[in-house]
Amino acid sequence: xxxxxxxxxxxxxxxxxxxxxxxxxxxxxxxxxxxxxxxxxxxxxxxxxxxxxxxxxxxxxxxxxxxxxxxxxxxxxxxxxxxxxxxxxxxxxxxxxxxxxxxxxxxxxxxxxxxxxxxxxxxxxxxxxxxxxxxxxxxxxxxxxxxxxxx
Length: 151
Hints:
Helix content: 25-40%
Low-confidence stretches: none
Strand content: 15-25%
Radius of gyration: 17 Å
CATH class of the largest domain: Alpha Beta
Structural class: alpha/beta
Number of strands: 9
């Protein structure tokens, strides 16, 4: 099986096999000894570190915008999603927001320690006046904070 590993894999003892990939930004997130040792072990077993293509990153950002997860998806999350899409690989992650964007992109996901996330759509509602908007931020009507809510 071809898979792309999110950082969570390196913090656990989750068994992985097959053709495995990750991104340079994931490697940069590994700071403690256990995760670095796990990376070295998997790298010795054939793990490849590859950056995603720019076109695929744009596709991920557009999907995150559509799914309402743009505000919570990090650059590293975008990288792993883009690489999984680019390689037509399964994404191994426990991050619910990443799983939600993966569902929007048609990328298969393998959860690690959590249940698989259900695809959700977000809406944004002003905490002051109750109006709905397309994104979070500050309400242009009353100035209160616009919060993300489950649709």
